[in-house]
Amino acid sequence: MIRINNEWNDYEIIRTGDGYKLEMYSQKYKFLRPDPQVIWKADPSFDFERECDAFYSRNNDGGGLWTSNNQIPEEFFVHWRELTFSLKLMGFKHTGIFPEQAYNWARIIDTIKNSQSNNPSVLNLFAYTGGATAACLLAGASVCHVDAAKSMCERAKRNLNLSGLGLNKVRFIVDDCIKFVEREGNRGKKYDAIIMDPPSFGRGPKGETWKITDQIYELVQKTKKLLSEKPLFFLVNSYTTGLQPTSMKVILDKIYKDIPHDCEAYEIGIQTKEKEVVLPCGASAFMVFK
Ligand SMILES: C[S@@+](CC[C@H](N)C(=O)[O-])C[C@H]1O[C@@H](n2cnc3c(N)ncnc32)[C@H](O)[C@@H]1O
After folding, report:
1. What DSSP line would sit under 112-135, residue for residue?
2. Which of 97, 124, 126 best tests ligand 1's pocket when mutated (most atoms within 8 Å of CB)?
């Protein structure tokens, strides 16, 4: 069954249809973004473009651009529990947050707290603007936050500072995830938990190529060496269209078949303001070691 988290007060999806979702951030800014899951028709009486403050339209080269109807501030904010996220309109239709990940953040927090482990260490790969990193810190863990983009690490730092979490329990690494995992393996470094949310395609800082369908199995396999003697959990999420949650679970179950664990696969989504529309967003597998 699809999993949703209902703890957002200043983020919501107002309407969906014709390949788009209309979202509201900070209780005031309405943005219209394409969403490949929205394959149903829109209500023809509702004018999406007129209702929004900015919309993202795709161009032919795979990119796109934001067009504003109204003034949008350079930076705006949303909140989840004690966390504050700094957002802005960015390339590739991003705003700096994947709100449906809140389900996974809650699960990370519960798993760390229930483990009663003292200051566990978490490796967060493809860590983006730090949502999962912040969740780990809230639960009392320390984190190694890895992302190819320096700008994403800077934004994660801003989010942690805004959330009052500070930076002293986080190691920020700008690197290619595969290369970093290999190096950490050679150094004998260990972590109590691993999180990864890899994109369909990506690039390391030196142009290293990443393709999820070709490389995810190998990456999960390489991380095995990094797990501590008493590991807590392993979370994999994907937004790749067509990759099912169960495929993530099969990878984890296969690679960790010799270590007792429970692994659950599930879709994550957002309950929109339209009662009948729960928008599916990502595919996750969450493995807890016994
Ligand atoms: C879609 S985001 C992940 C979403 C995020 N974990 C969240 O829940 O909000 C993908 C991130 O992977 C990073 N990335 C892409 N290719 C990479 C690579 N080869 N090594 C490290 N990071 C990479 C990008 O810079 C980007 O920040």
Report:
1. HHHHT-SS-EEEEES-TTSHHHHH
2. 126
DSSP-based helix, strand, coil % in the chain, nearest 5: 25, 35, 40
Helix (H, G, I), strand (E, B) or coil at 1: coil
Task: Pick the closest to residue 69 from 89, 46, 40 (CA basis).
Answer: 89
What are the structural domains, with CATH classification, of the chain?
11-87 (2.60.40.1180), 99-289 (3.40.50.150)
Query: Residue 61: what pLDDT?
Result: 80
pLDDT per position as a tens digit, 139-188: 999 999 999 999 999 999 999 999 999 999 999 999 999 999 999 999 99
Report helix angle 150-162 to 131-138, nearest 10: 40
Q: Are 278 and 6 in contact (CB under 8 A)?
A: no
Please give the angle made by the CA atoms of 155, 285 and 276, to the nearest 5 degrees: 85
The torsion region of residue 124 among left (phi > 0), alpha (psi -120 to 50) and beta comes to beta
Is residue 149 in contact with ligand 1, taking CB distance under 6 Å? yes
